[in-house]
Amino acid sequence: MKKRWLLLVIFLLVLNLAGREKIEKIGSIEWYTEQNSFEEIKGIAQKENKPILAVFSATWCGPCQYLKKNVFNDPKFKKVQQKALLLYIEQTTREGREYCRKFNVRAYPTIHVYAKEGHLLDAWLVDRSVNGFLNWFQKIDAGNSYYALSKQLKKTPNNRRILIEIVNRIGHGHVKEKIGYLKRAIALNKDFKDPLSQQAYEKLINLIIPNAYSTRGNKSDPFIKENIGLVNQVIQAYYPDEFKHEMASDWGKSLLLNWFRIIENYKQGIKIFEDYRKQQKENLDLGRDILLFPSALTCMLHGGKTEEADKWMQLLYEYSNNSELNKNPKRFNYSFSRCYPPFIEYFAKQKKNGKAEDYAGQFYDLLKQIGLKRLYASQSITYANKYGLFAEKTLKEINEKINGLKGTLRANHLQYKIQI
């Protein structure tokens, strides 16, 4: 087919939420919304002499909607309303995004408590239930909070316990601040065998690795170059069976695999996966262990084990479509979807577009199945643009969407060139 470049204006449709009011009713309880400025919220909180409970949420976020339906909708939540001014911030509105930028919120749901004057009191809620919220406010009232720990730290700046504990209380975001606290604690005692130091080391790499991932695996990135030596030292000190805290969990194992994928030490990533298989006596539970596979399979692809990676993908695909085995399809399929992009990119770059399209087709079906339609739209356009995958089909879908515009919608305009 003759190649030509088509310049397209793609409309990614989003329901217009500009009509949100300043008050939203959840069940029988009224919440202030992001349509009020934070200055207005502080003024109301000062008049009512209450702290501010701020919930940063998103319509596309499953856990957010669970909270809204099962906790905030509970009539007993009125007990929480008696203790705090309720502020519900919807990230998908322009005002909501401004709130998220202001408070450096990048994950949802994020739940903060602010003083009526506007400073952060605490951001660490473990039990997301009515009783969990009530117990949280009791702890804050008793002085067990980020704000109280910050005041203590000013008096005793070399208190390692507080330096480590305060990291838990800052909440999502503020990564540089958290890393700073932990590096201060480590600088006071670098002994890997010291219990407090080990807590700090494990928390530190539990922060560094996910944020290194945000650089998209560019090992020359300044953040990775700054921390690569330290992370490798911590792994060498505690791997395989000396981790005791965050890194001892399944999540910790997935982080280790992710780290070696990021720094392109694929052989070490494969070794960690094989070590885990031996530990499980070659009997992996695909449902339980799915978190390991996105990075493990990437390491195999680039580490000379392409055929083995292919076989694992076939097993995972069969598991995904077996309702008797896949008891938690939402969790499994979401994690499984993250396995596909490396395969699509790998085979497309090798000009094996047939193989790449096989994986892309499965990927798109899975995204639609788990309700990630916007991600499907953006990914299908990206791969059509970069590699010509399903280009004709993608172009047809775009035209149908543009021609079918109805109702009150707003469009985010993105330009792509699709090679056909």
In a nutshell, what does this entry contain?
The protein is an alpha/beta fold.
Number of helices: 20
Q: What gyration radius follows from the Cα positions, in whole Å?
A: 24 Å
Strand elements, count: 8
**Strand composition percent:** 5-15%
Q: Order of strands in the sheet with the most strands? A: 2-3-5-4-6-7
| N-to-C SSE string, H for helix and E for strand | EEEHEHHEHEEHHHHHHHHHHHHHHHHE
Terminal Cα span = 8 Å
Characterize the main sheet: 6 strands, mixed
Mean pLDDT level: 87
What is the helix content?
55-70%
Shape: globular
- What low-confidence regions span 5 or more consecutive residues with pLDDT below 50? 1-18, 406-420
Structure notes:
There is one protein chain. The chain is of the alpha/beta class. The strands form two sheets. It has a six-stranded mixed sheet with strand order 2-3-5-4-6-7, with helices on both faces. A two-stranded antiparallel ribbon has the order 1-8. A hairpin with a 2-residue loop joins β2 and β3. It is globular and about 65 Å long.
Task: Map the helices and strands.
Blueprint: E1 5-15, E2 23-26, E3 29-33, H1 38-48, E4 52-57, H2 62-72, H3 78-81, E5 85-90, H4 94-102, E6 110-114, E7 120-122, H5 130-141, H6 146-155, H7 160-169, H8 175-188, H9 195-213, H10 222-238, H11 250-262, H12 266-279, H13 286-289, H14 293-302, H15 306-320, H16 329-337, H17 340-349, H18 353-369, H19 373-387, H20 391-403, E8 409-419
Parallel strand pairs: 3-5, 4-5
Antiparallel strand pairs: 1-8, 2-3, 4-6, 6-7
Helix pairs in contact: 6-7, 7-8, 8-9, 9-10, 9-11, 11-12, 11-14, 12-14, 14-15, 14-17, 17-18, 18-19
